[in-house]
Amino acid sequence: MSLVVFKNVYKRYRMGEITINAVDGISFSVEEGEFAVVVGASGAGKTTVLNILGGMDSCTEGEILVMDRDISRLSDKELIAYRRYDIGFVFQFYNLVHNLTAKENVELAAQICRDPMDSEQALESVGLLDRKDNFPVQLSGGEQQRVSIARALAKNPKLLLCDEPTGALDYNTGRQILALLQETCRKQKMTVVLITHNSAITPMADHVIEMKSGKIVRDIYNEHPKSIEEIEW
Ligand SMILES: Nc1ncnc2c1ncn2[C@@H]1O[C@H](COP(=O)(O)OP(=O)(O)OP(=O)(O)O)[C@@H](O)[C@H]1O
User: Fold this and answer.
1) Does residue 13 line the site of ligand 1, with CB under 6 A?
2) Strands of 2-15's sheet, edge to edge?
3) Are 116 and 156 contacting, i.e. CB atoms less than 8 angstroms apart?
4) What is the pLDDT of residues 145-178, one digit of tens each?
5) Range of the domain at 45
6) What is the pLDDT of residues 58-114, one digit of tens each?
7) H helices within 40-170, ranges in order?
8) Which part of the chain is the ABC transporter domain (predicted)?
9) Cα of 118 to ligand 1 centre, how many Å?
10) What is the ipTM of this complex?
């Protein structure tokens, strides 16, 4: 079943006389339980797609179905509920609250949703239970990103959206985070949409959507997705 369907979606910005088509009439779908990667160079429109899908931005034209509901027509109040209950976010720079411990950061997210996972269980799933009482400053970048993944998972989201989750990490730490996201997708049957400029990681995805100048230039499924150990860049 398709969890996400984009139908002829546009996002236009008017800058005086000029119109920028950040997203230029794209259609694609993401199946339930899929690990989908949206790849493209800087300015291709990836962030705009993720922001629209996460209910943080709206499209100018088109239809976006998430679990058969058109999110492009939701009211502000409905969008808040959508972001809160249905979507988990993982950002490039973790966005942790610095005066809260790892566990408290996860609890904070769990508190605002309906059927949260236990925060210690979420930290355990990312291999960080023993660091639950540490503040972000006491954790490495990779560990902070693990906390942010635990925070997203604690919400039991239908869809996990990841915006360049390894962008601030070194090569090996980035690989560990990608392995964790792939494992989460497989074990918890979580649908993951990850955006990146790094085309080398696309073999690990079930589904690769390549963007260029706001358009989709490639939309393929990998018959045999690779594990991160099989990929080098
Ligand atoms: N608020 C805005 N106003 C005007 N133009 C915008 C705005 N947001 C994005 N754009 C333009 O839309 C296009 C797509 O931007 P977007 O951030 O989605 O690309 P991206 O693929 O995520 O790039 P990056 O990898 O650098 O983050 C770019 O040309 C960008 O300049």
Assistant:
1) yes
2) 18-31, 2-15, 61-66, 69-70
3) yes
4) 999 999 999 998 989 999 999 998 899 999 999 9
5) 2-230
6) 999 999 999 999 999 999 999 999 999 999 999 999 999 999 999 999 999 989 888
7) 46-53, 76-81, 102-111, 119-125, 141-154
8) 4-233
9) 37
10) 0.96
CA distance 98 to 5: 36
pLDDT at 100: 97
Chain CA centroid to CA 219, Å: 18
CA distance 145 to 3: 26
Identify the residue whose C-alpha is closest to ligand 1 atom 25: 42
Q: Are strands 191-196 and 215-221 parallel, antiparallel or unpaired?
A: unpaired
Give the residue among 200, 201, 194, 202 at the shortest CA–CA distance from 163: 194
User: Whose C-alpha lies nearest to ligand 1, atom 17?
Assistant: 47
Domain of 154, CATH number, reads: 3.40.50.300
Index of the ligand 1 atom closest to the CA of residue 45: 18
If DSSP codes are grouped into helix, strand and coil, which group holds residue 170? Answer: coil
At 2, the amino acid letter reads S
- Residue of the CA atom closest to atom 7 of ligand 1: 13
> Is the CB–ligand 1 distance for residue 46 below 6 Å?
yes
The per-residue DSSP string of 31-67 comes to ETT-EEEEE--TTSSHHHHHHHHTTSS--SEEEEEET
- Tally of structural domains, the chain: 1
CA of 186 to the centre of ligand 1 (A): 31
- Judge if the beta carbon of residue 197 lies within 6 A of ligand 1: yes
